[in-house]
């Protein structure tokens, strides 16, 4: 393990000497572990026994304090302390230089412990940001970030605080941001899993959490199902989400308090998408699917939005035609899909444009439905549904063929989102007047 520490001028800035007053430092969670010293870096060496310590010093500190610090150390500690020159941090350029020095002293995958006690001005904040960067960019393990609170001493005993929970807070912020922006719950799941595992590895005998990892995996699974277009499974699991959250909320409040304050609001955006019965296709189920299309648009998942929108239109056709098994593609759904394709063509070209590979059985069924529906009061409803199907086919093909068609149009996200939203509105209105005996909720 490597230690990163700072040395400052201390309280006697103009004098040559230690610059600090002697005190007994004690870890807040281990008050009987005491180190009496002028310099907090000595506490880090005594308690954590790092293999090496990188000691960051400005030019003035190096001239006035470094020798006194070295002279206060036993020989075996002097050998492992390496001073690292940093500027005063009096400009943005110098702050960036300090940051680069901090992260440049740590190798990929190392384990470190950090001390910000004698850092000055904005350096403690900069050190916390560097620690977060090292975790993300270099896969560094942060054992702790410590501050010796001399100003909070009682009877000359100064508590030592571990600031690493604030790094965890930044992890939470990043994970929640990812979830809110994309629906990807992987970050939340990993943090909850780590929090639960830490309680077991630490040997806590009582009140060990059992729901943290389970809830994290559940949330991660919902996000994965949504992103993989497993809409029916996602709807069913989202319907169970409030119950899963209730089971885990006490443990989350205890072991992951930063998440407890915002989790309900974060998952609140997807809870309305839940539907308990994924096997029953009716208007209520289709309405939830339309809402998921809207969710995809809000999160800029346009391929998924168009993919589900197409199936929403086929589902509406299945309900309107009273298809007995709407999720059985080979036996029933294929015919409803073909009839919708028939309605998407211009009226004068519908018979000519029927797919050559279409089986005679399917062609017969399509023509029977055409005779029934286009001679009834439902004709206008089907015409509008057909227009939506023709629109989505054009847009979906443009996206799904990866711009390999030389005639592909340039689909700009903003205009595409607006187009899909307008088609959703039309579809939602059509859903209100959908024909068929299976349309009830």
Give the secondary structure arrangement, pairings included.
Blueprint: E1 2-6, E2 23-27, E3 30-37, H1 40-48, E4 52-57, H2 59-64, H3 66-71, H4 75-78, E5 81-85, H5 92-104, E6 111-115, H6 123-138, E7 141-148, E8 157-162, H7 164-182, H8 186-201, H9 212-227, H10 231-239, H11 241-255, H12 257-260, H13 263-267, H14 283-298, H15 302-320, H16 329-344, H17 360-373, H18 379-400, H19 413-432
Parallel strand pairs: 1-4, 1-6, 2-8, 4-5, 6-7
Antiparallel strand pairs: 2-3, 7-8
Helix pairs in contact: 5-6, 6-7, 7-8, 8-9, 9-10, 9-11, 14-15, 14-19, 15-16, 15-18, 15-19, 16-17, 16-18, 18-19
Q: Can you describe what's shown?
A:
The structure is a single chain. This protein is α/β, with parallel strands linked by helices and 441 residues long. It has 3 domains: 2-162, 3-Layer(aba) Sandwich (Rossmann fold); 164-277, no CATH class; 279-441, no CATH class. Helix content is 56%, strand content 11%. It contains 19 helices and 8 strands. The chain has helices at residues 40-48, 59-64, 66-71, 75-78, 92-104, 123-138, 164-182, 186-201, 212-227, 231-239, 241-255, 257-260, 263-267, 283-298, 302-320, 329-344, 360-373, 379-400, 413-432; strands at residues 2-6, 23-27, 30-37, 52-57, 81-85, 111-115, 141-148, 157-162. It is elongated, with a radius of gyration of 32 Å. The mean pLDDT is 87.
């Amino acid at each position: 393990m490597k230690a990163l520490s700072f040395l400052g001028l201390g309280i006697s800035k103009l004098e040559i000497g230690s610059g600090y007053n002697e005190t007994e430092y004690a870890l807040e969670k281990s008050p009987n572990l005491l180190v009496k010293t002028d310099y907090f870096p000595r506490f880090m060496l005594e308690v954590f026994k790092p293999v090496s310590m990188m000691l960051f010093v400005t030019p003035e500190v190096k001239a006035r304090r470094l020798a006194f610090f070295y002279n206060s150390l036993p020989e075996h500690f002097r050998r492992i302390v390496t001073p690292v020159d940093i500027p005063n941090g009096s400009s943005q350029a110098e702050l960036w230089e300090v940051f680069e020095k901090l992260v440049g002293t740590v190798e990929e995958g190392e384990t470190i412990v950090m001390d910000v006690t004698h850092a000055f001005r904005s350096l403690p904040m900069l050190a916390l940001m560097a620690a977060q960067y090292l975790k993300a960019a270099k896969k560094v393990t942060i054992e702790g970030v410590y501050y010796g609170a001399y100003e909070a001493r009682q009877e000359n005993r100064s508590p030592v605080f571990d600031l690493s929970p604030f790094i965890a807070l930044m992890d939470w912020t990043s994970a929640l941001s990812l979830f809110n922006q994309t629906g990807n719950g992987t970050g939340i799941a990993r943090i909850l899993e780590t929090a639960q595992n830490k309680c077991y590895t630490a040997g806590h005998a009582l009140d060990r959490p059992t729901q943290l990892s389970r809830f994290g995996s559940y949330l991660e699974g919902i996000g994965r199902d949504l992103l993989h277009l497993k809409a029916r499974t996602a709807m069913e699991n989202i319907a169970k989400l409030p119950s899963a959250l209730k089971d885990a909320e006490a443990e989350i409040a205890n072991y992951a308090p930063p998440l407890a304050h915002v989790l309900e609001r974060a998952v609140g955006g997807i809870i309305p998408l839940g539907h308990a019965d994924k096997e029953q296709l009716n208007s209520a189920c289709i309405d939830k699917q339309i809402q998921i299309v809207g969710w995809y648009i809000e999160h800029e998942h346009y391929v998924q939005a168009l993919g589900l929108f197409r199936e929403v239109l086929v589902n509406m056709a299945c309900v309107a035609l009273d298809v007995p098994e709407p999720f059985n593609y080979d036996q029933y759904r294929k015919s409803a899909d073909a009839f919708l394709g028939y309605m998407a063509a211009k009226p004068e070209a519908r018979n000519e444009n029927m797919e050559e590979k279409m089986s005679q059985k399917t062609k017969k069924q399509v023509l029977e439905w055409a005779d029934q529906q286009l001679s009834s009061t439902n004709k206008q409803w089907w015409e509008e549904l057909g227009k939506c199907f023709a629109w989505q086919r054009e847009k979906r093909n443009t996206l799904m063929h990866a711009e390999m068609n030389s005639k592909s149009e340039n689909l700009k996200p903003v205009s595409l989102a607006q187009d899909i939203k307008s088609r959703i509105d039309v579809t939602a209105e059509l859903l209100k007047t959908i024909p068929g005996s299976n349309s009830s909720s």
